[in-house]
Amino acid sequence: MAKSSILDAWGRPFDLQALREEQAGATVTGVRQPVGGHPASGLTPQRLARLLRGAEDGDPVAYLELAEDMEERDLHYGAVLGIRKRQVSGLQITVEAAGDDAQSVADADLVRAFIDRDELADELIDILDAIGKGFSCTEIIWDMSERQWSPARLEWRDPRWFDFDRETRRTPMLIGEGGQLEPLAPGKWVQHMGKAKSGLPIRGGLARPVSWAFMFKSFSIKDWAVFCEVYGQPLRVGKFGPGATEADKDILLRAVRNLGTDAAAIIPDSMIIEFIESKLSGNHDLYEKHADWWDRQISKVVLGQTGTTDAIAGGYAVGKVHDGVRGDLEDADCRQVGATLTRDIARPLVMLNNGPRKAYPRICIGRPDEVDVEKLVKNVATLVPLGLKVGMATMRDRIGVPDPDPDEELLTAPAQASAPPEPAAAPPAAKPPARALASRQEPGRDAVDAAIDEIIAAEGFDLVEPLIAGLEGRIAALPADATLQEAEAILAEQNAAMAPGLLARRLAEAVFAARLAGEGDEPLS
Q1: CA 366 to CA 346: how far, in whole Å?
Q2: Which stretches does UniProt call biased (Pro residues) (predicted)?
Q3: What is the spatial distance between Cα 329 and Cα 302, in angstroms, rounded to a whole number?
Q4: Least confident of 282-286, 291-295, 403-407, 492-496
Q5: Where on the phi/psi map is residue 13: left (φ > 0), alpha (ψ -120 to 50), or beta?
Q6: Which value, to the nearest 10 degrees, does the dihedral of the CA atoms of residues 96, 98, 104, 106 take?
Q7: Which residue intervals of 373-483 are DSSP H helices?
Q8: pLDDT tens column, 314-359
């Protein structure tokens, strides 16, 4: 075996030759056959209890077959479980680089190439099979056609072909051709655990609690079907004479039964069939209410709520509240699947192509955060000149702009025209009187505006000096991962020290002086 120095998340070395071969393909004569049994038929409480206990004791095949049967036979369970899977598989998938250096960015781009495949959404459905059954093992079919390791596809493998180690019952292992347990090849599998509760993985799936609801609901559906078949039909009574033989009785019985289905029968002249009108009374919707009650329990355990699946009082408002609970489950599923893909896809992909790293890209699944891009860009443009350090890769991720290709034409700031040379300074002229000053003002401005301009030009720095004193140093001292809120807090503290009352007083004095100068036809100073 071509053992490699590359180790997986559990410290096991990769076998490069094994990565090129399928480990768990289906067999015709071996133990990995694609066709299984259907234990849901004739399920009783005693059989279900034995089936669940056997799954814990090392024989999970019947339980996993029951879980598959329930998704097919129980329409409500299949629907809500499908909603939970598709809700996660349809969300945005992103890759976070381990750092801003070129190496980390290249690793992230390698993983993004795999994430951008159209087939990934369907492959996520297979991985999320663990929500119902407790675990899923998806084989990675590696491709080296371009002299680079890349997953060609993720192949779903029947959970009946796996069992857990005998010591801890937590590590999934492949059932070999001889029935023995084989470890899963390092770097070859996506092993996802649907952790709905703490405990053994085989007991962590939703199919286990739902199985009891499925069984009791099946009893109600069966009784309901029998009731619907006979409800409203007249009671048929056959009468035979004292000399009738057993053969005659059998003929009469068949005739009575056929009248219920074929509406045709023949009997001897000595026999009579009477029809008695059916007058059934009582609560005829008992079966429907019982089945609906179990459906609501299934909705609670799968989606965490009933407001978006069952018609209940409260309408839209109740549905919105319950949909928030469903969002908590969505977040949990996203975190679990993202961690699994990071460990079993991103890590091996980077190691096989670029070698071991101290940190690896993270695969994240979820709804994008609502970012006010305009405000973010404005704040960054204002604070970066003051010393705030912002990573370019971080900004690209926040505003949704991908990294440019090496040969892609880039947008740049327009070139600024060179300023003309400044004329020689003229000697200072005597300050004109107020009327002369007002006559040279721009249209729409008066002597008060001119006076304010002179006050700000003469004393503006003194007025705002408390705001900018030490600001650059405080901004530069922020850590590299500082947030905009921390920088805004520093600006608020500096602004509080500026004493805006002083500026207001100076402006009031200027306005008053300008008015007196206008009334007395005197200069402003």
Answers
A1: 17
A2: 420-431
A3: 9
A4: 282-286
A5: beta
A6: -20
A7: 373-383, 392-399, 434-439, 447-468, 471-476
A8: 555 554 544 544 788 999 999 999 999 999 999 999 999 999 999 9
84-96 burial, b if ≥16 CB within 10 A, otherwise e? bbebbbebebbbb
CA distance 519 to 505: 21
HEC per residue, 250-289 = HHHHHHHHHHHHCCCCCCCCCCEEEEECCCCCCCCCHHHH
Farthest-apart Cα atoms in the chain, separation: 147
The single residue listed with the structure tokens 């990769």 is 14
Report the SS3 class of residue 464.
helix
Contact by Cβ (8 Å): 1, 21: no
Sequential DSSP letters for 175-195: E-TTS-EEPPPTTSEEEEE--
Q: Among 39, 64, 340, which residue's Cα sits nearest to residue 202?
A: 64
Using CA atoms, how far apart are residues 500 and 464, in angstroms rounded to an integer? 9
Compute the CA torsion angle 43, 48, 52, 55 (nearest 10 deg): -40
φ, ψ for residue 478 (rounded to 5)? -65, 145
What is the mean predicted confidence (pLDDT) over 213-225?
A: 93
Contact criterion met (CB below 8 Å) for 396 and 126: no
Phi/psi of residue 376, nearest 5 degrees: -60, -50
DSSP 485-496: HHHHHHHHHHHH
| Among the listed residues 345, 75, 302, the one whose alpha carbon sits nearest the alpha carbon of residue 189 | 345
Tokens of 381: 């443009």
140 touches 189 (CB < 8 A): yes
Half-sphere exposure of residue 229: CA atoms within 13 angstroms, side-chain side: 8
CA distance 345 to 102: 21
Strand spans (E) along 301-345: none
Report the candidate in 105, 136, 269 with the shortest Cα–Cα distance to residue 201: 136
Question: What is the Cα gyration radius of the chain?
Answer: 39
Sequence ranges of the domains in the chain: 3-209+324-366, 232-279, 373-402+432-520
Tokens of 449: 């505006």
